[in-house]
Design brief:
Blueprint: E1 6-9, H1 22-32, E2 42-46, H2 47-53, E3 57-59, H3 67-82, H4 90-98, E4 100-106, E5 110-114, E6 119-121, E7 135-137, H5 143-158, E8 163-172, E9 175-186, E10 192-193, E11 209-210, H6 212-224, E12 233-237, H7 265-275, H8 290-300, E13 312-317, H9 321-340, H10 345-361, E14 364-371, H11 381-408, E15 412-416, H12 423-429, E16 436-445, H13 459-462
Parallel strand pairs: 2-8
Antiparallel strand pairs: 1-12, 2-12, 3-7, 4-5, 5-6, 8-9, 10-11, 13-14, 14-16, 15-16
Helix pairs in contact: 1-5, 3-4, 8-11, 9-10
The structure holds flavin mononucleotide.
Length: 470
């Protein structure tokens, strides 16, 4: 058994131009280095020279950004600026979009799935290692077939069974720094499936699959270097592998349905919807940043509304005198109402204490009002009353958006109807315009406990089927 692997950087590969023949340049470099290929050698070739020889270069000045690219530019530019990294131009974003099947994350970088199925930053587009201020290199269109062609040409001239790996370096989640990855391969299997073999102690391995071509690409990277070292071809000698004629990088790409880190929109949405709870317990003492609340209100403004009237008005009540006065006044009205109902003093006191605790202890209290100014007026009361209902339905939609957005910020909240029962008092205490109809309170803060979801009705109980019309 061999216990040594050699990594040999091939000197003498020139700066590549479109149309250059990489196999030929490798053969010439081998000759000038006095090197001969051996059976079982693996040649790792940096993607950038394959891209350049294939002419996969674009001039950013020739790209017209689409509306989508401009929108993404507006979203990600502030993030890039805030962390002090170069801003991506709309033209570059357009190029990334054209190279991608899907955008998975929009941050200071765009994490996308490329047309080949690789998940990486900016669709693997590179602005470094290419001449010309506005030139970018794109990943090769079909790295497997490039690798295969080079392997076959080298075999023809050397009679050796070797493997080819076209490599790039990708950043990865959870760990800092880029590592080598294989984009295209020939002559070697992408993964080494060790399942079923025995470990040192005789236990059968259940799930070990070794990403051998990525490991080899990473090893070669150590010799290639990243910037201007100029050793884009590395020979790996001494690694034992089963030579295979027809191989592809595909088996290393995780199937979407077994990818724990990529969720479909519908899975994410279903999780968000099911996770939201009405939180009625004590909140954590942690302060809530008002900017987060404002951001959630901004998103709540994206709810649908009748005639796009956007009748919702949100009022943020921080802790302090105004909130105290409001709750005292609301409680005196509650007390009167309960006395009218003939409730006992103990019952009333309990209710009042609970209300005080709910609304005064909550780190943030948000009041939602319906602004009736923009509701349409009709000559008959039925249509006017329907219009009023439309207003309420619309602000309810916004309230739901608000609750879901708070939840996505890890904030807990509960919708309380109390202001509805003391509209005049709320309006007077807060000196609100007469067109504002107080509708709901939201207590907001960080939770101290996760709470269980109350049961939901069965699907058949909430769908009314029109069987009688069949
Ligand atoms: C219009 C509306 C008014 C509500 N008012 C109150 C309230 O005054 N007090 C309260 O404890 N919960 C209130 N809730 C919260 C409900 O009790 C809660 O949504 C329901 O029990 C389901 O629980 P979940 O939101 O955790 O799924 C209200 C909810 C809605 C939609």
């Amino acid at each position: 058994m061999k216990n040594k692997i050699d990594l040999i950087g091939l000197k003498g590969i020139p700066i590549i131009q479109p149309g250059d023949n990489i196999s030929q340049l490798i053969l010439e470099a081998l000759k000038s280095n006095n090197l001969a290929l051996e059976d079982g050698d693996i040649i790792v070739i940096a993607q950038t020279i394959i891209s350049k020889s294939n002419g996969r270069i674009r001039d950013l000045k020739s790209i017209a950004p689409s509306r989508k690219a401009i929108e993404i530019y507006k979203t990600i530019t502030p993030i890039a600026k805030s962390i002090g990294i170069p801003v991506k131009s709309p033209e570059l974003i357009q190029a990334i979009l054209e190279e991608s099947n899907e955008i998975l994350k929009k941050e200071h970088v765009l994490i996308t799935e490329t047309r080949h199925g690789f998940v990486c930053a900016n669709a693997g587009i590179d602005q470094s290692n290419v001449e010309g201020e506005y030139n970018i290199t794109l990943l090769p269109k079909n790295p497997d077939s490039d690798a295969n062609e080079i392997r076959k040409t080298l075999k023809k001239y050397t009679r050796k069974n070797i493997a080819i790996i076209i490599s790039d370096s990708f950043g990865r989640p959870f760990r800092v720094g880029a590592v080598g990855v294989a984009l295209g391969i020939s002559g070697i299997n992408a993964v080494l499936d060790k399942r079923g073999s025995k470990d040192l102690f005789g236990y059968e391995l259940q799930s070990t699959i070794v990403a051998q071509v990525d490991n080899l690409a990473s090893a070669a990277q150590l010799v290639m270097g990243e910037a201007d070292e100029g050793l884009p071809v590395v020979i790996i000698r001494g690694y034992k592998f089963d030579f295979q004629e027809n191989t592809s990088i595909k088996p290393i790409l995780r199937e979407k349905n077994s990818d724990l880190f990529r969720r479909s929109l519908s899975e994410t949405l279903s999780e968000i919807l099911k996770n939201r709870r009405s939180y009625k317990l004590k909140f954590d003492s942690r302060e809530v940043d008002l900017k987060i609340i404002e951001n959630c209100i901004e998103l709540a403004g994206w709810a649908p509304s009748a005639h796009n009237g956007q009748f919702w008005r949100y009022i943020i009540l921080e802790k302090g005198k105004v909130r105290n006065d409001l709750i005292v006044n609301m409680n005196s009205k509650l007390c009167q109402d309960l006395e009218k109902d003939g409730k006992t003093d103990t019952f009333i006191q309990k209710k009042i204490d609970k209300t005080r605790e709910n609304f005064l202890e909550s780190p943030i209290l948000v009041l939602l009002c319906l602004d009736t100014t923009e509701l349409e007026m009709y000559s008959d009361s039925e249509r006017s009353s329907n219009e009023y209902i439309l207003g309420i339905q619309s602000i309810s939609a916004s309230a739901i958006y608000f609750l879901l957005t708070l939840n996505s910020e890890n904030l807990a909240a509960c919708w309380y109807c109390a202001p509805l029962f003391s509209k005049d008092i709320v309006r007077e205490t807060l000196k609100l315009p007469s067109s504002f109809e107080p509708m709901a309170f939201f207590t907001v803060g960080y939770p101290i406990k996760k709470i269980k979801a109350p049961a939901r009705k069965k699907l058949n109980d909430i769908i009314y089927r029109l069987n009688n019309l069949r």
